[in-house]
Structures are given as structure tokens and as C-alpha cells.
């Protein structure tokens, strides 16, 4: 009986970190398929990141010259992606002073180097697509994933503007979705560069969804630039173990045990 309880206790200890890691993302978000082998998506994501994210957020675990690993030349990096430094070996440092950020947003924007590893790609994809106009918020924006977010919508020109419906008292209207969860009642105010309205009034966001996906792809890459090489090396090791070491061990075992009766 004691052994059984010890086994259960060990299982709980192992499960606890996993549950905490799952809770870090929190919620049920649409699945996004990230392909780190897609260099074009990575390059677009790097461009979006340096143009729209790096103004406020740093990525001090990433150097500009590392972008050569995704197919960019040093000249392309210097010409198109470097706005806060002129040294390609420097880390990605925000153009905004921390003191100013805290004054304007109430808190210093977090470093995004490991955001994809801590939050998960699905969360980031939902977050980027979840902004809506909310006049009750200090920045004028809110988010369906992160309620009362302090960050304004950096990609509103690309996505267009979703707005929340207000009641007679000027407060946001909340409704139940298909899962019974309270969500803000939204409508499209305007479309953007990567969204369009059809004649029947529907808004197609597929182009913006791909735009956001490219940014998330880069954030995932930035969290572990060597991920593809690590996985490729793992496949090589597994092939070596099964193709070489396993037959070798089998025949060696037969040789050692052939005289044992």
C-alpha cells in the first residue's frame, strides 16, 4: 500500500509542472499551425516585428545578425530591419525608454524573446487577432484574450477596427458565446489593409490571419532559433540508434550468450 501511495505522489509531482505550464497560456484558443521551415514566413514575421513591436518591446535574447539564419543578408538586415542601432551584432533593444513606457502604459512592456515559450503560439495568435476598440479603456483598446489590456492595437491599420457595442450608460455590452462564456458584443467599424468587406456585409480576415501567423512564427523562432537543427539532430540520432546500435547490440548479445545454456 505504501508503494502505491508513493507512486501516486510521484505522478502528482510530475503532473503539477505540466498543469502549470498549460495554465500559463490559459483558455481554449484556435490552433495555429507554425512551420519554422518556411523562410518566407519567418522573414515577413521579422519585418513585422521590427516595424511594429520593437518600438515598445525589446528582444534582448536575439541579435540582428542571427536573422541571417532565416535567409536574410547583412545588407538586407541593416537596410530594412535595423532602426534602433547601426551595429548588426547588437541585441534587439526597444526604441522606447523604460521610464517613458511605464509612464504612458502603467508598466514597462515585457521583453518578447521568450514570450512564445511562456505563452504558446495559439495564445499569441488569438491575442493578435483579439483587439477591439473600447472607449472605456485608457488607450481606447481592449482584447478578447487579455481583458483590460494596457497595450494599444499595433496592427489596427492592417486588421481594421472592431468595436464593442455600448449600452445606454456607455458601458460595453457582453453576450454569451456558443460555449456559454461571456464575450464583448463586437461589430466591424472599418476594414484594414489586410481585411475586406464582401457585398453581403461579411468581413474576410484571412489575409490578416496569415499576417498575424507570420509574426507568431517569428516569435516562436526567436524563442529557440536552434529548434529546427535540434529536431534534425534528434532524427539523426534516432536513425543511428535503430539502424546501427540496435543491430550491433543484438548481434553482440547473441555472440556473448551463444555458449550459455
From TrEMBL:
Free-text comment on the cofactor: Binds 1 heme c group covalently per subunit.
| Annotated transmembrane regions | 233-252
What would you give as a GO molecular function for this chain, any one? Answer: heme binding
Q: What are the protein's UniProt keywords?
A: Heme, Iron, Membrane, Metal-binding, Signal, Transmembrane, Transmembrane helix
The cofactor required is: heme c
Residues binding heme c: 53, 56-57
Superkingdom, according to UniProt? Bacteria
Which InterPro entries has this protein been placed in?
Answer: Cyt_c-like_dom, Cyt_c-like_dom_sf, Cyt_c1
**Pfam families from the xrefs?**
Cytochrom_C1
Q: Which Gene3D superfamilies match?
A: Cytochrome c-like domain
Instruction: State where the protein is found.
Output: Membrane
Q: Where is the Cytochrome c domain?
A: 40-132
Q: What is this protein called?
A: Protein PetC
Q: What is the lineage of its organism?
A: Bacteria, Pseudomonadati, Pseudomonadota, Betaproteobacteria, Neisseriales
Amino acid at each position: 500500500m505504501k508503494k502505491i501511495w508513493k507512486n501516486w505522489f510521484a505522478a502528482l509531482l510530475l503532473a503539477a509542472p505540466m498543469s502549470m505550464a498549460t495554465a500559463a497560456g490559459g483558455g481554449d484558443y484556435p490552433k495555429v499551425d507554425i512551420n519554422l521551415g518556411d523562410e518566407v514566413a519567418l522573414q515577413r514575421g521579422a519585418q513585422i516585428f521590427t516595424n511594429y513591436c520593437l518600438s515598445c518591446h525589446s528582444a534582448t535574447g536575439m541579435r540582428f545578425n542571427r536573422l541571417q539564419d532565416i535567409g536574410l543578408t547583412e545588407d538586407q538586415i541593416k537596410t530594412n530591419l535595423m532602426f534602433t542601432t547601426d551595429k548588426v551584432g547588437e541585441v534587439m533593444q526597444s526604441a522606447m525608454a523604460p521610464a517613458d513606457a511605464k509612464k504612458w502604459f502603467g508598466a514597462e512592456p515585457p521583453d518578447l524573446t521568450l514570450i512564445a515559450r511562456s505563452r504558446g503560439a495559439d495564445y499569441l495568435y488569438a491575442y493578435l487577432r483579439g483587439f477591439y476598440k473600447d472607449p472605456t479603456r485608457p488607450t481606447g483598446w481592449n482584447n478578447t484574450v487579455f481583458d483590460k489590456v494596457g497595450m494599444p492595437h499595433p496592427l489596427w491599420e492592417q486588421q481594421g477596427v472592431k468595436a464593442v457595442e455600448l449600452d445606454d450608460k456607455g458601458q460595453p455590452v457582453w453576450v454569451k458565446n456558443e460555449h456559454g462564456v461571456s464575450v464583448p458584443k463586437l461589430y466591424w467599424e472599418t476594414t484594414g489593409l489586410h481585411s475586406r468587406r464582401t457585398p453581403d456585409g461579411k468581413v474576410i480576415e484571412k489575409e490578416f490571419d496569415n499576417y498575424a501567423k507570420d509574426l507568431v512564427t517569428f516569435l516562436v523562432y526567436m524563442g529557440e532559433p536552434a529548434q529546427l537543427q535540434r529536431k534534425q539532430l534528434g532524427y539523426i540520432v534516432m536513425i543511428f540508434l535503430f539502424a546501427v546500435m540496435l543491430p550491433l547490440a543484438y548481434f553482440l548479445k547473441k555472440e556473448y550468450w551463444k555458449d550459455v545454456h
